[in-house]
Amino acid sequence: YQTDPSGNYSGWKATVIGQNNQAGKSILKTDYKPENSVEQNLKVAVKILLKTMDSATPTPERIELSTLKKNTDGTIVHYT
Question: What's the pTM value of the predicted model, to 2 decimals?
Answer without folding.
Answer: 0.71
